[in-house]
Write a structure and sequence with these properties.
By secondary structure, the chain is mostly helical. The protein is built from 10 helices and 5 strands, in the order αββααβββααααααα. The strands form 2 sheets. It has a 3-stranded antiparallel beta sheet. A hairpin with a 6-residue loop joins β3 and β4. The longest helix is centred in the C-terminal third of the chain and has 17 residues. The chain is globular and about 65 Å long.
Length: 255
Amino acid sequence: MELEALEFNPVDKLRVRSTRKKVAAVIDRRVVVNPRLAEELLTALSYVGRRGRFWRGERLVAFFACMYFGALRPGEALALREQDCHLPAKGWGRLTLVGSRPRSGKRWTDSGEAHDKRGLKHRAETEPRGVPIPPDLVSILRQHIDRFGVAKDGRLFHSDRGNVVGASTYSRVWEEARCLALTPHQVASPLAGRPYDLRHAAVSLWLNAGVPATEVADRAGHSVDVLLKVYAKCIDGQEATVNQRIEDALRGSDQ
């Protein structure tokens, strides 16, 4: 039988429906906690996750505080070392972030460890990021080092055996703290549903305080355009301002 070439590629006519869920392009403002609730959550951490001599949550108060007061990503906080911290007795301090320890799984890291060693996100591999930190966080970090010490490589946050704290560990502790600090209605809501939401709260707080977007982006490790796009709905006052302008325009049309 003679074979003839098709006039078109039938594969091009196929339509494939993606099963991937769309990822939100902006932060849901419902996840953002205010300073009072953030303080209550940090306090609650000291009373959850009992293990041995210490409450497991107590070892992680400073870890979560880094995300709230310094807008660190969890992997950046896990990689933080004592030598990266300037913690004066008074006033503001500074963190010099040089790396991250995101969880990748042992199968996917060159070292065979569950947490990979990487450079900072959106930066050259060896480029650091400086983050000024308020006296509140300086005090918390100083107390953490005095009470729990550091790992052999200088890391501030480590398990009893000196290992990197697992995501499952700090996520369980966070959920317990939410149940203790929040009302049942708040627990059932998206409010601070993930530890990462503390970083969202930090960035939102800075923007609403009037800190220039360029400075916020630099401290948080974002580009300015991505920062404003992602946190657009978390900037308070815009909706009220726009509503007032529309109302003024409507009233003006009646005159």
